[in-house]
Amino acid sequence: MSDVHSAAIRSKNMRAIKNKDTKPEIIIRQALHARGLRFRLHVKTLPGTPDIVLPKFKTVVFVNGCFWHGHRCHLSKTPKTRTEFWLSKISANMSRDVLIYKKLSDAGWRIAVIWECGIKGCGNQKLNALISEFVEWLNDPKSLGFELP
């Protein structure tokens, strides 16, 4: 089945898909900042250019979109068109993620992965509970990995 858009329009649409400063990422950043945590954004010198870096805690945070990173949840449905392409693309993204996490871990960084489905549509009370859980983990240097949800 051919694309319903011309190559120029499809290219324009794909360029509009952001890979940083996404809504879930901004929600997490605002919540962390409100807790007094200070961080750096998109540090290019680290493998994978983490979304949030908390140098004081030697911790990186990836706010992953469920579709793009192959999370097994209701937000990660395989498109019905070009299924083989999308499965290959998402599989490559997942493999790259594992490699990046290994490199960061080997360099002594703690890794937190926050999934889009864990914060999408949640109210302030739930978000505060999730951030409290994250901050508790952050303050426990023995705990290396964190994942929400």
TrEMBL record:
Keywords per UniProt: DNA damage, DNA repair, Endonuclease, Hydrolase, Nuclease
Pfam families on file: Vsr
Transmembrane segments: none
Coiled coil: none
Highest taxon above the source species: Bacteria
InterPro entries in alphabetical order: DNA_mismatch_endonuc_vsr, Restrct_endonuc-II-like
EC number of this enzyme: 3.1.-.-
SUPFAM superfamilies attached to this UniProt entry: Restriction endonuclease-like
Function: May nick specific sequences that contain T:G mispairs resulting from m5C-deamination.
Family in the record: Belongs to the vsr family.
Name recorded for this polypeptide: Very short patch repair endonuclease
Organism per entry: Solimicrobium silvestre
